[in-house]
Amino acid sequence: MDRLVILVPAIMQAAFFFALGASVGSFVNVIAWRWPRGQGIVHPASRCGACGRSLVWWENIPIASWFLLRGRCRSCGVVFGMSHVVVECATAMVFAGTVLLLFAGPFTDVLPAQTMWWLRLGAWTSAPTLLAVLTLWGCLLAVALIDAETGFIPLGLTSLALGVGLACMTIQGFFVPDSQATLTNGWPTGVLSPLWIGVGLGALLGSVIAGILLWKGWLPRSFAQVDPIADVPPSIARTEVLKELIFLALPACGAIAGGILLRDTQLPIPLQALGSSGLGMTVGAATIWMTRILGTLAFGREAMGLGDVHLMAAAGAVIGWRDAGLAYLAAPFLALTWVAVSGGLAKFRGKTARELPYGPHLALAVVVVYLGRPWVVPAARILFGIP
Ligand SMILES: [Zn+2]
Prior knowledge:
Elements lengths: L1 H33 L29 H5 L14 H21 L9 H13 L1 H24 L4 H18 L21 H23 L17 H29 L6 H31 L6 H14 L1 H29 L8 H14 L1 H12 L3
Helix pairs in contact: 1-3, 1-5, 3-4, 3-5, 5-6, 5-10, 5-12, 6-9, 6-10, 7-8, 7-9, 8-9, 9-10, 9-11, 10-11, 10-12, 11-12, 12-13
């Protein structure tokens, strides 16, 4: 009976977020289709891709319409592919799964402190952070679909997730119960000492300044005149990497200065929250950027795009430094699995395997690490010796 009292509200909550996820998935489909084709996101209204007839409202309900219409256009009879309804179902399940994991509490004994934080605060008090997480899921999905099709990561989407993440985590800092006067009782992006809060804030400030200088044209852009696909001589690769190191010097100096200046200062909680998110962003971006620089020097061509750096920066700001690091370590395993499975299937069908860029693997790794915490955390402890 007690179990039922806990489970019924949790299931109703999950049902609501399933519907919300299906709607977001529907919007993700629109973005993933229209962005690579240079079309507006809001206009024109949804229409049949074959005959151009505008869809009426009941043909536009996520998931349900596909079944109502039996996957066909009512006018011209063209078959709608499965991909849209698969994306809607996947988003719905990820949204519902996130809420169940965080608030239904079936895994309380194996989860790290960050997840207990959610359970203690409940869905209403932790709404800003929940908004940041769900925004990240929507953006990651759209980014993965667009990257898989075009090989480009739209920075508008990663910036949206990063901006919402940093803002929402800071706002969350204003909404903590008095018993949590400091971030010692768990925090979604990790509890940090003043030293590391300072490092996060300094790196964040340095990144903003470097970004403004780059935008103003006062810092050189790497690979601006170099074909990113072609192999370049080692000397040119070194010059391009040097441009990126000049950019990176600013966040690096900021991190060192922030750590030294703030190592003994107990900042207000919203600033601590921002610093914790900033460190997550830094760890997410730095792991990919270091891989990119080493890869570029080793192979003499642009290895791992800057879009991947932006993707992991946004993810780190929302899920924290530890999970961002775990996702970075998990992504190669997912990529290898994809190569093995898609290669095997292609051989079976007598076709060539479809190559995927790295972005979708990173995005999936972030979601898998987050939703798989009850299993990923013990596995990571064993594999990498992470405390
Ligand atoms: Zn039609």
